[in-house]
């Protein structure tokens, strides 16, 4: 793949990378920094990417590793980052916007309360549309672990919203299978 085509493919991934970064850190500015760092590393390491493999999985893994490096550094320095819980929602009428806002806020609050490993899997599979196998590759975990974490995340989210798992806003039918 030519350098310009590689860069074009990387640019096409930016919205997905940003959503993933935001789901990891919860801070928009930090998410943008993570995406920028991941893109810089991907461009520098372009020769290590194997054509025919998924560029998105490779880049998501770079971003995740950068985030983990940042957490390790933060822990060693004893610094914490506040989580920005501001969500922008649009709608057609006030009542619908208010209901959507309450529902979305409840879902986002439920997702935020999940353990980090479940939150990452839920984001990758239900929001980013990755298959179980792709999420397992990015996270470096067995596919069964991804499946069980996703199941636990869905169950916890449904319970937190006062629903059964089949009523959850992130049903099993909404995701890509292995």
UniProtKB/TrEMBL annotation:
<comment type="similarity">
    <text>Belongs to the sigma-70 factor family. ECF subfamily.</text>
</comment>
<feature type="domain" description="RNA polymerase sigma-70 region 2">
    <location>
        <begin position="12"/>
        <end position="75"/>
    </location>
</feature>
<feature type="domain" description="RNA polymerase sigma factor 70 region 4 type 2">
    <location>
        <begin position="106"/>
        <end position="157"/>
    </location>
</feature>
<dbReference type="Pfam" id="PF04542">
    <property type="entry name" value="Sigma70_r2"/>
</dbReference>
<dbReference type="InterPro" id="IPR013325">
    <property type="entry name" value="RNA_pol_sigma_r2"/>
</dbReference>
<dbReference type="GO" id="GO:0003677">
    <property type="term" value="F:DNA binding"/>
</dbReference>
<dbReference type="InterPro" id="IPR013249">
    <property type="entry name" value="RNA_pol_sigma70_r4_t2"/>
</dbReference>
<keyword id="KW-0804">Transcription</keyword>
<dbReference type="InterPro" id="IPR007627">
    <property type="entry name" value="RNA_pol_sigma70_r2"/>
</dbReference>
<protein>
    <submittedName>
        <fullName>RNA polymerase sigma factor</fullName>
    </submittedName>
</protein>
<dbReference type="GO" id="GO:0016987">
    <property type="term" value="F:sigma factor activity"/>
</dbReference>
<dbReference type="InterPro" id="IPR036388">
    <property type="entry name" value="WH-like_DNA-bd_sf"/>
</dbReference>
<dbReference type="InterPro" id="IPR013324">
    <property type="entry name" value="RNA_pol_sigma_r3/r4-like"/>
</dbReference>
<dbReference type="InterPro" id="IPR014284">
    <property type="entry name" value="RNA_pol_sigma-70_dom"/>
</dbReference>
<dbReference type="Pfam" id="PF08281">
    <property type="entry name" value="Sigma70_r4_2"/>
</dbReference>
<dbReference type="InterPro" id="IPR039425">
    <property type="entry name" value="RNA_pol_sigma-70-like"/>
</dbReference>
<keyword id="KW-0805">Transcription regulation</keyword>
<keyword id="KW-0731">Sigma factor</keyword>
<dbReference type="GO" id="GO:0006352">
    <property type="term" value="P:DNA-templated transcription initiation"/>
</dbReference>
């Amino acid at each position: 793949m030519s350098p310009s085509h590689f860069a074009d493919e990387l640019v096409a991934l930016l919205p997905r990378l940003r959503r993933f970064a935001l789901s990891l850190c919860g801070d928009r500015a930090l998410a943008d920094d993570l995406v920028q760092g991941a893109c810089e590393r991907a461009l520098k390491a372009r020769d290590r990417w194997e054509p025919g493999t998924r560029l998105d999985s490779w880049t998501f893994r770079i971003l995740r590793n950068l985030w983990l490096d940042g957490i390790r550094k933060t822990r060693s320095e004893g610094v914490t980052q506040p989580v920005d819980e501001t969500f922008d929602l649009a709608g057609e009428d006030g009542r619908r916007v208010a209901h959507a806002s309450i529902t979305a806020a409840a879902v986002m609050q439920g997702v935020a309360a999940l353990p980090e490993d479940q939150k990452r899997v839920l984001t990758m599979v239900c929001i980013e549309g990755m298959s179980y196998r792709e999420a397992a590759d990015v996270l470096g975990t067995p596919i069964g672990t991804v499946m069980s974490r996703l199941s636990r995340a869905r169950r916890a989210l449904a319970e937190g919203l006062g629903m059964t798992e089949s009523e959850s806003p992130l049903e099993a039918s909404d995701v890509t299978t292995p």
